[in-house]
């Protein structure tokens, strides 16, 4: 239920003075749980498959693999040497893939 924080708050005396009819009317009011969503904002963030992204530029700086890193031959992610679990057929395997 939405709360309007700008409305004046009732004191304990005001709450006690509410009539039974008013309380019954409040109880019978239907509250909606639907959230207002702007469909345009939703559609704007939607990326369609096959969309032309040829004139988009990446803003990510890619670093080459460092001397203390390895590429797991199971998941093909670059990990630090501390994540090396084993070597399978001479290929390094990370702890996540070995588990």
Describe the structure.
- The chain has helices at residues 12-16, 20-28, 39-44, 95-98, and strands at residues 69-71, 78-80, 84-88, 91-94.
- The protein is α+β, with helices and mostly antiparallel strands.
- It has a domain at 65-98: Wheat Germ Agglutinin (Isolectin 2), domain 1 (2-Layer Sandwich), CATH 3.30.60.
- A two-stranded antiparallel sheet has the order 1-2. A two-stranded antiparallel sheet has the order 3-4.
- A hairpin with a 6-residue loop joins strand 1 (69-71) and strand 2 (78-80).
- The chain is elongated, with a radius of gyration of 30 Å.
How does the SSE layout of this entry go?
Blueprint: H1 12-16, H2 20-28, H3 39-44, E1 69-71, E2 78-80, E3 84-88, E4 91-94, H4 95-98
Antiparallel strand pairs: 1-2, 3-4
Taken from the alpha-carbon principal axes, the silhouette is elongated
Count of individual helical segments:
4
CATH class of the domain at 65-98, named Alpha Beta
Distance between the ends: 46 Å
Q: Structural class, from helix and strand content?
A: alpha+beta
Order of helices and strands: HHHEEEEH
Overall pLDDT metric: 80
Strand content: 15-25%
Organism: Actinacidiphila rubida
Pfam family, one: DUF4193
Protein name: dUTPase
Region (Disordered): 23-51
Main features:
alpha+beta; Wheat Germ Agglutinin (Isolectin 2), domain 1; two-stranded antiparallel sheet; 15% strand; DUF4193; dUTPase
Summarize the entry for a quick read.
By secondary structure, this protein is an alpha+beta fold.
């Amino acid at each position: 239920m939405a709360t309007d924080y700008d409305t004046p708050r009732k004191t304990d005396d005001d709450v006690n003075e509410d009539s039974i009819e008013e309380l019954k009317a409040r109880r019978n009011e239907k509250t909606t749980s639907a959230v207002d969503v702007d469909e345009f904002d939703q559609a704007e963030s939607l990326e369609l498959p096959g969309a032309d992204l040829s004139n988009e530029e990446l803003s990510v700086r890619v670093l080459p693999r460092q001397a203390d890193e390895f590429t797991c031959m199971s998941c093909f992610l670059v990990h630090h040497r501390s994540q090396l679990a084993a070597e399978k057929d001479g290929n390094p395997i990370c702890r996540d893939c070995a588990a």
